[in-house]
Design the sequence.
């Protein structure tokens, strides 16, 4: 009986993880097609990044809502709804005749992933024993981390030999598989709650994320100030709603926990690295090195595979020996690898990028999932859904911010440096990478201080 429960738990995680896998796969698969799509739809570098940003923005808004949805509806029903939305998104993008329809498809995919991702971690946090939590969270990250590994190559092969539309077509059988596994493994457990949806909080958080991303994407224009004002207003609305509502969208009291806050910050910087490099490398290979979409995807696959494989292994290390060693060692390796790649970008070819990417992804594999595990270990059982929502919401938002910031920095340098396109793209990429590296340095200092305390291991 116990064995059957463990098998169903793993299959439930797998089923919800497959949808997250598909979402991230398309996200990174499409990144190698950006130069092609810019030409086909006649849009700029700053505009094309909305293929990624709109997807991550919708997830960032949907994930906080998931905390309420999980209490309100059976997990099985939420899972089915997410599958249907993802299928609609795939069809919309596969048949997209315009850039607007392409973004609409990404909207539906973001909605589905925004439900599936917290659903997967909710199942782990609710049903997995505490002594296996690190391993199970690592398994969840393995499922979603494999996608960046094969996404660029998957997208490169299809867009080079066929058309970018086929990227979406071939995912339909995978979504069907997810539905079949989920219907078997995810039970129909009735739920009872008297909580009401915090509509004011939902409006506030929508304004925050939408305004912030529009602000970052339009830093060069006068409208950036208006978007900044929207962000601030949204933040005030969300904060007030969280204080006044007895059942807030997200319980912000969690952010008062210093350790939770610090591990969350370090986790988000890792996410910024993963999404930032997925934008930088394909554009660098194709614009600076005149490589193909296939080549730009191929250079990222070895490092991404290593990072994905290390996720459950590092989770097991956490369960056996604690969080200190995998997290601190992982961040150090990450900073060394990222720093070398940032420094030598422009003087190295594809092989050098592969080596640098592999090195820093070893570090990401050691620390990334463990940062979420140790962060969630700071949260009481009654606030697990809120902690899960905060991690998953800000994870996707950090990815959107990273893509937007990197795109803006590169775009600004391309327009204002008076250098040739190849040289300005390289310089912009290096500046963006050094900016993210500095943030990781701050995260490392914070983690080091916490783990230096006798009570931390």
Sequence:
């Amino acid at each position: 009986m116990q064995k059957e429960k463990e098998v169903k738990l793993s299959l439930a995680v797998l089923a919800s993880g497959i949808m997250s896998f598909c979402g991230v796969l398309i996200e990174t698969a499409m990144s190698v097609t950006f130069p092609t799509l810019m030409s086909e739809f006649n849009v700029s570098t700053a505009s094309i990044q909305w293929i990624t940003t709109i997807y991550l923005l919708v997830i960032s808004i949907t994930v906080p809502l998931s905390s309420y949805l999980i209490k309100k509806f059976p997990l099985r029903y939420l899972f089915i709804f997410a599958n249907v939305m993802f299928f609609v998104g795939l069809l919309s993008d596969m048949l997209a005749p315009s850039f607007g329809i392409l973004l609409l498809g990404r909207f539906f995919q973001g909605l589905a992933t925004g439900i599936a991702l917290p659903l997967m971690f909710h199942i782990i946090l609710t049903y997995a024993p505490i002594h296996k939590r690190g391993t199970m969270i690592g398994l969840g990250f393995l499922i979603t981390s494999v996608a960046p590994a094969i996404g660029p190559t998957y997208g490169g092969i299809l867009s080079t030999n066929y058309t970018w539309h086929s990227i979406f077509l071939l995912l339909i059988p995978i979504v069907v598989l997810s539905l079949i596994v989920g219907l078997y493994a995810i039970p129909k457990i009735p739920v009872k709650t008297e909580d009401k949806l915090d509509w004011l909080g939902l409006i506030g958080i929508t304004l925050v994320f939408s305004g912030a991303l529009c602000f970052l994407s339009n830093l060069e224009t006068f409208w950036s100030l208006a978007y900044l004002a929207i962000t601030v207003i949204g933040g005030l609305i969300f904060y007030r709603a969280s204080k006044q509502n007895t059942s807030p969208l997200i319980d912000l009291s969690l952010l008062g926990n210093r350790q939770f806050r610090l591990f969350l910050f370090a986790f988000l910087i890792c996410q910024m690295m993963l999404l930032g490099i997925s934008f930088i490398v394909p554009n660098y290979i194709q614009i600076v090195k005149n490589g193909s979409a296939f080549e730009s995807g191929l250079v990222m696959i070895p490092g991404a595979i290593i990072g994905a494989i290390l996720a459950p292994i590092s989770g097991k290390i956490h369960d056996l020996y604690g969080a200190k060693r995998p997290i601190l060692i992982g961040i150090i390796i990450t900073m060394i690898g990222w720093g070398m790649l940032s420094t030598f970008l422009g003087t190295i070819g594809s092989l050098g990028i592969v080596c640098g990417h592999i090195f820093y992804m070893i570090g990401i594999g050691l620390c990334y999932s463990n940062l979420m595990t140790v962060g969630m270990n700071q949260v009481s059982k009654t606030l697990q859904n809120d902690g899960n929502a905060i991690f998953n919401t800000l994870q996707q938002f950090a990815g959107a911010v990273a893509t937007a910031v990197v795109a803006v920095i590169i775009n600004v340098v391309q327009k204002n440096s008076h250098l040739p396109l190849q040289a300005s793209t390289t310089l912009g990429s290096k500046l963006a990478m050094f900016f993210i590296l500095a943030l990781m340095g701050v995260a490392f200092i914070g983690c080091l201080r916490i783990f230096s305390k006798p009570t931390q291991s």
